[in-house]
Amino acid sequence: MHGFKGERVLMRIHIGERDRHDGNSLYEEIVELLRKRHYAGATVFRGITGFGANSRVHRQKLFGLSSDLPVVIECVETEENIKAVLPELDRMISGGMITLERVKVIMYRPHAAEEEGPDNWALDVTGSWRVGTGKAE
């Protein structure tokens, strides 16, 4: 995939490490779904502690035994592709949360670097805060 720059959508899927789908690990099933759909990539993060809607704290126990640690799967894709996969994720996930946010992709290198024009790395920062002031304005 070339030209993967500009505005995209970051999808974060918050689930538990022990969550299952069709007898398999849910996070592995989600990553495989995204891979089969030829998405740009997905990364799974395992949390060290956290809690969800039931307010029960999940943390690693003594000697590394898991107590259903939090897992976050991140994927950056086009809005169209993210919208297309949401119904299937809804069928797979029995408990958890999906968040979406707009992101600006400045670099994506799926293979060895190719001949590209140089980027000026300028950032278009908008909002009610300013860099370097140390306080919100």
Describe this structure in words.
The chain has 137 residues and is an alpha+beta fold. It has one domain: Alpha-Beta Plaits. The protein contains 2 helices and 8 strands; from the N terminus they run E-E-E-H-E-E-E-E-H-E. The protein has helices at 26-36, 79-92; strands at 6-16, 20-21, 24-25, 43-46, 49-51, 57-59, 70-77, 97-105. The strands form 3 sheets. Strands 4-7-1-8 form a 4-stranded antiparallel β-sheet. It has a two-stranded antiparallel ribbon with strand order 2-3. A hairpin with a 5-residue loop joins strand 5 (49-51) and strand 6. The longest helix is centred in the middle third of the chain and has 14 residues, at 79-92. Residues 129-134 have low confidence and may be disordered.
What descriptive keywords fit this protein?
two-stranded antiparallel sheet, alpha+beta, single chain, Alpha-Beta Plaits, 137 residues, 2 helices, globular
The fraction of residues in strands falls at 25-35%
The sequence of SSEs as H and E is EEEHEEEEHE
Helix content: 10-25%
| Mean residue pLDDT | 80
CATH class: Alpha Beta
Which class do the helix and strand fractions yield?
alpha+beta
Q: Counting H and I runs of at least 4 residues, what is the number of helices?
A: 2
Radius of gyration equals 18 Å
As residue ranges, the low-confidence spans are 129-134
Q: Biggest sheet, strands in spatial order?
A: 4-7-1-8
Q: Would you report the number of β strands?
A: 8
CATH topology: Alpha-Beta Plaits
Shape: globular
- How many domains? 1
Question: In the CATH classification, which architecture applies?
Answer: 2-Layer Sandwich
Distance between the termini: 40 Å
